[in-house]
Write a structure and sequence with these properties.
Elements lengths: L2 H19 L11 H13 L9 H15 L2 H13 L4 H9 L2 H4 L1 H17 L17 H13 L2 H5 L5 H4 L1 H14 L7 H15 L3 H13 L4 H15 L1 H18 L8
Helix pairs in contact: 1-2, 3-4, 3-5, 3-12, 3-14, 4-7, 5-7, 8-11, 12-13, 12-14, 12-15, 13-15, 14-15
Length: 266
């Protein structure tokens, strides 16, 4: 990288940091300025300028990864950044809520508390408007509509080997909770929900089978492969290279299949 490129990276860092946080990146302040310069110039001078995503989607991806990781101080900072770039509070909330079926309710509650702390500081009245669109009577059927459109009935078929009490109940829980209670909610379009779900699974680590299937679902929901890779690249600084590469390897299978190639081909 030549001198001009280095200067451009610093300039881009200052510009993006200002857009998101309304301030200036670290120079020599604090106890670890060298580390912060590495962090900020990589995230805000490079990653944030790579790929097609706008500030809204980049910050929703970041909030999602930070929720999965339970890095709550940074989550608060990026909830604020979301608001600074015009992301509606309802979209932020729905991005956090969307994590619950994958990371569990206690961790999601931790993230909700951090998010609501920022909302309260910003004078945003709580609770936010309701986003439910299903009832106890309709959540299963409405969930099936979304699930079958994107994923078919694969889960129900895969777990027929379970004992009778569970072979029907566990797939039903998935349909009712993931797709009925959450995917039907207002405030975040289905395309974005599926994109963020891929990010959630990648950030979890060890869920590459689900990364693969949800990548296929995200494409059916309207996302391009470039958008999915952009989202995963945006998540990189917050989840690390191993989880990025594991997710990319899972995506490679989808690319190979869609191109009519064997998944083992280079």
């Amino acid at each position: 990288m030549n001198g001009t490129d280095k200067s451009e990276r610093i300039t881009k860092t200052e510009q993006k940091f200002g857009e998101l946080f309304g301030g200036k990146p670290v120079q020599d302040e604090g106890t670890d300025p060298e580390f912060m310069r590495i962090l900020q110039r990589f995230i805000f001078g490079e990653v944030c300028y790579t790929g097609s995503l706008d500030n809204r989607l980049r910050e929703l991806v970041t909030v999602t990864v930070l929720t999965v990781n339970q890095t709550l101080p940074q989550l608060k900072a990026h909830v604020g950044a979301c608001l600074n770039v015009g992301v509606p509070p309802l979209e932020i909330r729905e991005a956090v809520y969307q994590c619950a079926p994958f990371i569990g309710f206690p961790k999601t509650l931790n993230a909700i508390a951090a998010m609501n702390h920022v909302f309260t500081q910003k004078g945003i009245a709580l609770p936010l408007e309701k986003a439910e669109t299903v009832t106890e009577e309709t959540r299963l059927d409405k969930g099936k509509e979304i699930q079958h459109r994107l994923y078919g009935d694969e889960i129900a078929r895969r777990y027929t080997w379970l004992p009778e009490d569970f072979s029907g109940k566990i797939p039903q829980w998935l349909t009712e909770l993931c797709f009925g209670d959450f995917a039907t909610r207002r405030g975040l379009e289905g395309k974005t929900r599926e994109l963020l779900t891929v990010v959630i699974l990648a950030a979890l680590g060890g869920a590459e089978t689900q990364v693969r299937s949800h990548t296929a679902g995200a494409i059916k929901a309207g996302n391009t492969m470039e958008e999915i890779i952009s989202a995963l690249s945006q998540a990189l600084p917050y989840m690390g290279f191993p989880r990025l590469f594991n997710a990319l390897n899972a995506l490679r299978d989808i690319v190979g299949t869609s191109a009519g190639k064997s998944v083992s081909e280079p």
